[in-house]
Design brief:
It is an enzyme of class 3 (hydrolase). The chain is of the alpha/beta class. The protein is built from 10 helices and 18 strands. Helices cover about 25% and strands about 25% of the residues. The termini are close together.
Length: about 375
Amino acid sequence: MNHPVSPLTPAELGFRMPAEFTPHDACWMLWPQRPDNWRYGAKPAQAAFVEVAAAIAESETVFVGVNDDQYENARNRLPSHIRVIELSSNDAWMRDVGPTFLTHPDGRLAMVDWEFNAWGGLHGGLYFPWDKDRRIRRKIADMLGIERFIAPLVVEGGAIHVDGEGTLITTEECLLNPNRNPDLDRSEIERLLRAYLGVETIIWLPRGCYQDETDGHVDNLCCFVAPGEVALTWCDDERDPQHAISREALAILEAASDARGRRLTVHRLPMPGPLTIAEAEAGGVDRLSSSRPRQSGDRLAGSYVNFYIGNSVVVMPRLDPAHDDAARAILERLFPGRRVIGIDAREILLGGGNIHCITQQQPAARPCRP
């Protein structure tokens, strides 16, 4: 369905990005398959994706987009109640290549179509080409019959987190990186975020998690769990570079006020590990010049903050037996009305992200159909 292009921004029309902890109609994912990012032809990663999709499907409808040559395999491996659709992609990071959904007080659903350059384009990006990824947002807009606002800004979904009440958190490391929007300064980026997401207050954290290959996505470091409350990756080891990053973020968050004038309550989630790529894991990945290499000993940006909030579940990564139970207990306390489901997510982490990175929530709304 083609909507007329409005000269007004989403915010001027009354749209805003809702919080992840508010009701959803669905969750969108993509199917992993590229052998230069996922080891052994992505078969171990596919098993992990199936577990994530099945867990979220307890809570809401799940759509999994699949390239044509993997459609039959995905359909046979995923539970029958999960919706498998042909939706070509270059890789499986739906949080970043998929739409940022917006809602309107009258019940309408819309989306923002950001520019995408594979986390840095030809200056530090993670793979080439990314042409299929750039078409995903338009395809989903057509499937749902909703309005698509094309934003003149390179943004990935994992680079932003909102409380749904006017506050956004992001990192300077990512959105101010010259490989994203070199011609825009902070004030211009803030203006566009306010215009397309309906936010008022923007909290900037300097850096994301240590060695995060996305240039410091906020969703691996910090996220809203309720109005006025955030979860933050925490490291007590002063010798670890993450220690300084977490404390720097804590100081900024505790000094900040949200759009409603509230001071933020910060909940600390312990960092797993530190985790690194094993030699056998790196050896299963194809080496191509067009993608980031996976090498033995590389630090993995593991984080328990990289979870998904569903309608009735919270799906969290299991990454380290020494910390998994403690992280789960904290999430159970933060989400008393939801069942916390732990998924063995190392295979997802080996590809460069985790559960939040491979999912994108579609908020509850009334899509405008012809």
